Amino acid sequence: PRLRAGHMVAALLEAAPALCELCGILLECVTPAACDCCVNCAAVAMEPPLRGRGCGRRVGLVCFAATAGAMLVATAASARLGYFDPAATVGIVEPVNPPVVWQAPPRKRPLEPRPVAVLPGEVGRWTTGADGAAVCDFPSGCTDDPSGDAKEAKEAPVDDAASRSGSKADIAPPADDPDDAAAADDDDDDDATMDAAKLAPFAGFNLNEPVEPPGCALHLYRHLSKTGGTTLRFIFDKQTAMGDWEFPLIYGFKANEWDALLSRWRAKARAWRDGGGGAGGPRTLVEVRGNWPDNWPAEHFRVVMDDVAELRREFGSATSASAPDGLAACEVTTSLLLREPFAQYLSFYEYYIRKQQEGEVRAEHVGKGWPDVPGKAAWGRDIGEWAARVHDMQTRELLGDKCTGQMRQPGYDVEWVDANAVDAKTVDAEVASSDPAVAELAVKIDGKALRRVGVHPQAPECHAKVTDDDWTRFEKLIDEFDVVGVTERFDEFLTLLARRIGLAHPEYVRSNAGKHERDRGKMSAKVTAVIDAATTMDRAAHELAKTIQSRLVAAAGGDAFVRH
C-alpha cells in the first residue's frame, strides 16, 4: 500500500504543473494573489529536490490539492476567459502557460479623444495642474519662454543610448513646497523642457486599444527598498504565467548570471532581427534588487545600466522606429519607483529594524558582539535612534556604492563584561532602573552584563552620506530611466509602464504592505524631526520623480490618461 501511495503522489505531483498552466490562465480575472500562489506552487513542484523524488506523501498531496483547488475556484468564479493566440511570441525560456490575449470588458463611459500630438519641431506652454505642479500641454515639449511665444525646437535626432549614458538630467529638484514650485522664477531649472525623445513614446499611446506585448523587448526595473517593488514583482510574475514574458533571474543575481542572460538574449534578438522581426523575439523582464542572494547588481548598478545602454545601441533605442542598421528594433527600457521618504523610512523600520530592536537577548548570545546580538543596546532604542545614523536610503541605494549594507546593520558596538568584576550594584541598578533610557539597554544573564560601548565605526570605504557630487550622479542616473514614478501614484505609474513596455495583464493586489502607524501627526516631534533631517536628499529625489511622472502623464494624454 505504501508503494502504491508513493506512485499516486508522484503521478499527482507530475500533474500539478499541467494544472497550473490552465490555472494561470483562468485566474487572471479572479485574483492575481491566487495566481501568484498557484504559479509559485508549480515552480516548487517542478524544481529539485521535489520533482522526481515524490516529495513525500503529505507535501505532494498539499502541492496537488492547492493547485487543483485553485483551478476549481477559478473555473467556478471566472466570468471571462482569455483566447489562445498561436501567433504570440515566446521568450528565451519557454513559458509555462500558452499565450493568451486578454479582451477588455466594455467601458462604462467612452474615452475622451486624446489631444493631437504636434510635430517634433513644435512646442507648447507650461500650465499649472490641479496639484500646483507645472504641466506641459504638448507631448513634444514646451517652451521655457515666459511670454509663451513658440520657439523653433528643430534639433538633430537624438541617439537615445548615447544621450542617456552621458547627459545630465534636465530637470532639477523642485522647491520643497509644491505651491512655491508653480510660482518659481521663470528661469528655474524645474521648468526646463524634458528630452522630447523620452516623451515621444508616451505621446503615441492609443488609449482606446488594448495593450499588446512587443515583438522583442528587455525591460529592467530597479527595485528600491520598501517602495512597492514586491507588488510590481508579482505583476511581472503574472506576465510570465500568462505566457507573454519571461522573468528568468532572481533579483539578487550574480555577475555571471547577468552575463549569461545578456548572451542568450542577444543571440535570440539577433536571430529575430535577422529574420525580419515580427513574432518570436525574446521578451525579458529583469528586476535589480540586491541583498539576497547576492549584492552584485545593486552595488554595480552602473555596470548594469551601461550594459543596457549597449543593448540599445545594438538593437535600436526605445524611441526609434528601427535599429541603427535599419533592421527591426527591440524595445530596451528601464523603470524606477521612489517613495515619499517619511513613509519609506517607517516601512523600512517596521519591516527590518523593529524586530531586531525588540529581539530577546538570550544565553546563546553571551560572549558575542557586533553584529550578532539583538536588542536595543546594539540596534537602537527606537526609530529615531536608528534613523539618526541612516541617511537618504533611496538616493544611496540607487547609486549603489554608498555603503547600503549599513542600512540593515546594528549601529552600536556592545560587549559582555563579568558582572562580578565590575560594580555589581551598578549593573543591578541599571537592570531595575525606572528610567527607560537606562533599563531598556541593560541586560544581565548568568553573571554577564551586556553594555553598549559606542557607535559602531564604519570602514573607511563606507561613504554613507550623500554629497553634492553624489546628487549630480543621481540626476544623471535618473535621467537614463524611461519610466519614473512615485509609490503614492502607483496605479498611474503602472499604467504608464504597462503601455510603455507592453504589459497586457497589469491587474494586481497589494503585496507586502505593512500594518504600522502611518499618520505623521501621531508621532513625536522628535522622531519626525530626526527622520526629516536624515532624508534631505531623498525628499529632493522624490520631488524630482514626481515632476518626471507628471510630465510623462501629460505627454500620454493628461486628464484623459488619468481617467483611463
Q: What is the number of helical segments per DSSP (H or I, 4+ residues)?
A: 21
Q: Tell me, what's the shape?
A: elongated
Largest sheet report: 4 strands, parallel
Structural class: alpha/beta
Across the major sheet, the strand order is 6-5-7-11
Q: pLDDT under 50 segments (min length 5)?
A: 20-36, 45-57, 77-126, 143-193, 431-436
What share of residues is helical?
A: 40-55%
Beta-strand fraction estimate: 5-15%
Terminus-to-terminus distance: 60 Å
> How many extended strands?
11
Rg, Å, rounded: 27 Å
Q: Whole-number average pLDDT?
A: 73
Describe the structure.
Strands 6-5-7-11 form a 4-stranded parallel sheet, sandwiched between helices. Strands 8-10-9 form a 3-stranded antiparallel sheet. The chain has 21 helices and 11 strands. The chain is elongated, with a radius of gyration of 27 Å. Helices cover 42% and strands 9% of the residues. The chain has helices spanning 2-26, 32-46, 57-77, 160-166, 178-182, 196-203, 229-241, 255-274, 296-299, 301-315, 341-357, 376-379, 383-387, 393-399, 424-431, 436-439, 468-478, 490-501, 525-534, 536-556, 559-563, and strands at residues 83-84, 100-101, 126-128, 134-136, 217-222, 283-288, 331-338, 412-418, 443-445, 448-455, 483-486. With 564 residues, it is α/β, with parallel strands linked by helices.
Key features?
564 residues, alpha/beta, 4-stranded parallel sheet, 3-stranded antiparallel sheet, 11 strands, 42% helix, elongated
List the helices and strands and how they pair.
Elements: H1 2-26, H2 32-46, H3 57-77, E1 83-84, E2 100-101, E3 126-128, E4 134-136, H4 160-166, H5 178-182, H6 196-203, E5 217-222, H7 229-241, H8 255-274, E6 283-288, H9 296-299, H10 301-315, E7 331-338, H11 341-357, H12 376-379, H13 383-387, H14 393-399, E8 412-418, H15 424-431, H16 436-439, E9 443-445, E10 448-455, H17 468-478, E11 483-486, H18 490-501, H19 525-534, H20 536-556, H21 559-563
Parallel strand pairs: 5-6, 5-7, 7-11
Antiparallel strand pairs: 1-2, 3-4, 8-10, 9-10
